[in-house]
Amino acid sequence: MKDPIKSGKQTSGTHMPYWLTSAPAFPCPSLDRDLRVDVVIVGGGIAGISVAYELMRSGKKVAVVEDGEIGSGETGRTSAHLVFALDDRFFRLVERFGADDARIIGQSHRQAINHLEQVVKEEGIECEFERVPGYLFLDPTDEPDSLVKELRAAADAGLPVSRLDQVPGITGIGPCLKFEDQARFHPMKYLTGLAGAVIKGGGKIFTNTRAMEVTSEGIVTRTGHRITADHVVVATNSPVNDKYLIPLGQTAYRTYIICALVPKGSLPDALWWDTGNHHVNKDLPPYHYVRTERYDDNHDLLICGGEDHPTGITDDKNIPEEKRYSALEQWAKAHFPIERLVYRWSGQVMEPVDSVAYIGHDPFNKDNVYIVTGDSGNGLTHATIAGMLLSDLINGQENAWERIYSPSRFKLFTAGRTFASQLLSGLVSSFKTKPTSEHGLDAVPIGAGRVVEIDGRKYGAYKDADGACHVVDPECTHLKCTVKWNADEKTWDCPCHGSRFSYEGHVLNGPANISLNYHRIVPADRHQFDMQPSDGSITETSHHT
User: Which residues of 218-247 are buried (b: 16+ CB within 10 A; e: fewer)?
Assistant: First the structure.
């Protein structure tokens, strides 16, 4: 199979998710001229397109720019749960925000699902949207009273929740909490339908168009074209226009997903979660999340995710990225009647220090610049919230959610123990990275990536199946932390703030917005090379293997 990172920009990893193979592409042109609009939006995932759609409906002239294709970032790599049964637990939200604000948070996600459903109906988007129940059950490492506390807190927040003695669809597991009126859908079919509605309403969407400069006046692309605007929205998962404050206010996590065949009709159409492994991390326990999806005449898909860890740091369980799928498969086999695996992929989740997304005015920028980030594992509903909230803010209308989601609420020196722990782990992991060998490129096995030393200097090197070496400068272009090789998705991941780069150095995830210096070396007689600037160009020389 072609490497999607190298051959196109359909997704931000080597593994192709089910959502991208089962939905038609949505081609858009690249920006080839200067433009003037009311609002320019950077990022063509569900957050950016949702914001564009709501603003278009309000009468604004909008333009979206996307570095890859529509949904090529994290939207296409989700498990596509639509929930107001938030995975951060409502009893913890009450502890952090108080009962009144916890109620607002829960109701905002509930309204987001209702609004998304209404958009599906109004625009006639065929995306397999269905209301389904969700079931929360205990992980063996958690205390039974956590379900008791969650039942009380979620009910106090006005959510439809009840207790069951047995988890439907899973034999021998109970008790659990049942949340009514959750939902599931096909995220790429929804996204392309929404993008089509934006264009039909007069909006413009440009793909394969990188915004290299983002200011309060608009954006400038890699090719030098400008879009000037009265308002600017940055919806790039982690904002590429904020170098310090917001990246320090959230932690990037890798999460893993497998799709397995199950006999058709053998499971209820539902969502499931456990409360997470408290032995791994009691503050942010990695949990399993599961749903079903229609597949063919004989099988449904069981979509199972989890085994999360901070991006670039896998020491918590000593399991490298590429081995996480086996752990997921083992867990899924213990709970569900799965047959063979047919898909696997990973994604990136941005976890804010208090578990609630940052949506609103960009701190330390002018009032006409806005950001959407901190999906906290609920990016689909947070994206819909962003569309509703930012449309109100840009149109000068009051919105009761503004204070809750304001990015300005983050205070560096009051962020708490979890934030400090994750920040320190990332910095330590980066600084302790040492070259695996002083023998240079010869020490890199076929199909592997290593940080190596050549002439006293560190390089990141990946050797492909043909023996060619793809060499990058291993310093992240965000704040110069040393990147780590991700053998699963064949990327260079930054353990400090979650930036990710392809093995050719191209930016896949912010906050970095500049590529790594890159050089390709083919097997032959020479061993000298010069790193190229971060402009996407490729130069070939040769080396001994």
Answer: bbbbbeebbbebbbbbbbbbbbbbbbebbb
What span, in angstroms and rounded, lies between the C-alpha atoms of 53 and 131?
23
Average pLDDT over residues 216-225: 96
d(CA 405, CA 389): 9
The pLDDT tens digits for 459-510 are 999 999 999 999 999 999 999 999 999 999 999 999 999 999 999 999 999 8
Angle between helix 145-156 and helix 99-123 axes, rounded to 10 deg: 70
- Interatomic CA distance for residues 519 and 462, integer angstroms: 11
Side chain identity, residue 192: T
Distance, in Å, from the CA atom of 522 to the CA atom of 150, rounded to the nearest integer, reads: 58
This prediction has a pTM of 0.90
Distances in whole angstroms, Cα of residue 513 to Cα of each of 69, 198, 287, 316, 538: 17, 26, 31, 29, 18
3 state DSSP class of 399: coil
Q: How far apart are CA 336 and CA 267, in angstroms?
A: 8
Q: Which residues contact 197 (CB under 8 A, 6 or more apart)?
A: 53, 56, 123, 125
Query: Strand pairing partners for 271?
Result: 134, 291
Half-sphere exposure of 79 (CA within 13 A, CB side): 29
* Residues linked to residue 358 through DSSP beta bridges, in sequence order: 373
d(CA 182, CA 311): 29
CA distance 472 to 478: 15
Give which of 280, 243, 248, 282 is closest to 351, Cα–Cα. Answer: 248
Sign of torsion, CA 178 182 183 184? negative
